[in-house]
Amino acid sequence: MARHVVVIGGGIVGLAVARELTTRGNRVTVLEKENRWAAHQTGHNSNVVHAGLYYKPGSFKARMSVAGNKSVIAFARDHGVGVEVCGKLVVATSEDELPALYTLESRAKANGVPADLISPAEAREYEPEVSCVAALRVHSTAIIDFPGVCEALVKQLACADLRLSTPALGIRPGRNGGVEIATGQEVLRADALVNCAGLHSDRVARLAGLTPRARIVPFRGEYYELKPERRHLVRGLIYPVPDAALPFLGVHLTRMLDGSVHAGPNAVLALRREGYRWRDVSVGDLLDTARFAGSWRLARKFGRTGVDEVLRSLSRKRFAASLARLVPAVQAEDLVRCTAGVRAQALLPDGSLVDDFLIETAPHQVHVLNAPSPAATSALEIARYVADQVVPRAKG
Question: Which residues form the FAD dependent oxidoreductase domain (predicted)?
């Protein structure tokens, strides 16, 4: 029997969940508070299809990104969306970074990611301007048009009820089971609810009566791009060895599908959940972050890192210096500031950053509470998992 499911959130995860539910014969309504799809995290990321290199073996991120790498690339090719499997280099720029690089190689093997350790000379065959003492060549990394993927998903949802400019304002249990969702125009009655609200996922969960384990703290990632006459310095994707204590990958260089080269992102606390600029400030969002004990514990753990990120945000010269560790020819005057994104990062009360995807369930409800990168890569796989929680597949 077909069920009616309301999906809150019109980014790539919400649209992928809606598509998966419709393919299983369900009636689906998608509520998106903005006037367009993919308005926030999906539309402001680096458009990289991750390989699954960085994540703890057996974790949601490891399993779903490796499978998602294949499924989202196949989806893009099947629907005429731009995608290119170009691979990437993760480079150790000093001897001190070699142990972490070797750990990444081990994780690649454990996760089934095609990757090889290569010498500096071999690295320069891929990237003539790169500087390193060793590198990991990751073969399955790709670049893609994620907003284009969302457009293709929307086209596949012709039978769904898609509602832009329609926020969920209230959620309560249905009188005869299920869930009721107030939108301001009406009250929708559904058999189940799926929360894919990204930057507001914890608030939607609380609206639905849950006390989620984690709180969303927004981190802005700022990008520059190389001036057109300096794009030749980068052929593909060049990443540093990341800090294992943080979920961010460090500023890196990415050649996009249109030939432009993006540099970034950094990671600074956003002053608003949808704060793409320093002047985007919400007193309510700041109070929400300040009242959460985990925020202060995180600040004590990583205060110095946070200061460094803010300084890099304010100084193009510092930003360029971070990039020059990877490609020494990059200089401050080569950079032009471009877009920024905001990452919805879940934070626990003890100050720990949630490292894996976090999905919680309640009667007639599924809440995707932590789905930052590589969620776009993993969207079709997350959708299958979530749909199984809502409407399990028949066995046999």
Answer: 4-388
